Input
Amino acid sequence: MSKSKDFTLGLLSGALVGSVVALLYAPDKGTNTRDVISYRLSTYIEELSQLIDKLSNEKESISEAKRKGDLVVEDARKRAKDLIHEAEDLLGSIEQTKQDVKESQ
Output
């Protein structure tokens, strides 16, 4: 599991355990306790939603960076092939020139 998933799982399980303990030891009336639980639950849901949005945006950024990296690699590969072809052509020209000089002597 990735660290972000571990963190999210730990956050949710900690919130759940904390809520259960709070219910068991609550000295307040049931209606007040339910209101507090409802408020905390909506807060946790909002925080979880924000965390999911943040993780989604990070995933999109990583995908975009990977796409750009792939384009750079492909461009470098093409340029390297072009340079190899130019070098081979140059070597061929040099060899041809050598042979022409030998034949003319």
Notes: Helices lie at 3-24, 30-104. Residues 29-104 form one domain. Residues 30-104 form the longest helix (75 residues).
